[in-house]
Amino acid sequence: MNLTQLPALTVLSDNVTIVEKDKVKIVRIIHDKATAGIALHGGHVVSFQPAGQPELIWMSEEAIFDGSAALRGGIPVCWPWFGRIAAPAHGFARSSQWQLIEHRENEQGVIVELGLCDSEETHAIWPNKFDARLIVEVKEQLTVTLKVTNTDDKAWLFSGALHTYLNLGDITQAETKGMGSEYIDSLQSGKLCTGGEVLKLTDTIDRVYTKPEAEIRVQDPVFSRTIKIENEGHNSAVLWNPWAAGAQSMADMSDEGYKTFLCVESTLHAPSLEQGKQLMPGEVHHLVTTISAN
C-alpha cells in the first residue's frame, strides 16, 4: 500500500507523520530501513516495505477505509478471541479505535506503540477490564507484539491472532514450509489431519497448524525472495486463502485478489471462549509475529 502520496496531517518527527485515507488516520513511517503504515482504526498494520524490496504486507484494493468495519488485508488484531466463537467474529479489537501512546526512533528503525483499554463499548461485548498495547517495530524486519494485561480483579479467558496477509507475486507458485504436518481443517468441520512438509496451493485453505516450527518460510519466486515468519506466545499457526469463490463473495476484495496473498497467522487458538487461555489479575501475555524477507 503506497502511503507516500498522502499529505501529512501532523508531523511527529523526521520519520513519523499522521496521514488520513478516507476516514481512517494512519501512522506513517518513512525510515532509511523501511516504510510502514499503522491505522489507528483497528491498530492495523497496513504496510511494511523494507528498503529496496517489494511490499511485504498485502492490502485489498477494495478495502473500505470508512472506519465502520475491519480493514481487509494488512495485519488485523483478532482479540479477545479468534474466529467465530463469539460475536463479532475475531473480537472487537480489529474494529476499535486505538490511541497512539508513543513513538521513538534511531538509526535501526522506528517503534510505535498503540493502546486500547476497556470501555462501555467493550463491556457491552465482553465484560472484562484490560489494557492492550500494540507495539510495532519497523526495522529491516517487522515485529508486531500484542501485549495484553488483565487489569480486572478476576481472571478471564481469551484467544487471539495477528492475522498477517503476506504479499506474494503469485499464490500458485508460492511454497510454504515450517508450518508442521498436523492441522485442524476448518473446511472439514474441524477434522484433525496430517499433511506434507511442503505446501503448494491449488485451492482454498483454512487450517490451524497445531505444531508449527519456530520459523515458517514462504518461497515467493515471482519476487525472488523467501519470507520468514517467527511467532511467539502462540499455540498454532493459521494459514488461510479464500481462493476464487471466496474472493468473489467478499465486497472488500477483488475477484482476483486471492492470487497475490497468503495469510500466515500467529495464533492463540481456542475452539470456544470457555477453552481460551486464562489470564490472572495483573498477568501479561505477549503474542508476537516477526516478518522478514531475503
From TrEMBL:
InterPro entries: Aldose_1/G6P_1-epimerase, G6P_1-epimerase, Gal_mutarotase_sf_dom, GH-type_carb-bd. It comes from the Bacteria. Pfam families: Aldose_epim. One of its GO terms (biological process) is carbohydrate metabolic process. CDD domains: D-hex-6-P-epi_like (cd09020). Its EC number is 5.1.3.15. Keywords: Isomerase. It catalyses: alpha-D-glucose 6-phosphate = beta-D-glucose 6-phosphate. SUPFAM superfamilies: Galactose mutarotase-like. Transmembrane segments: none annotated. It is an enzyme of class 5 (isomerase). One of its GO terms (molecular function) is carbohydrate binding. This is Putative glucose-6-phosphate 1-epimerase. It comes from Vibrio brasiliensis LMG 20546.
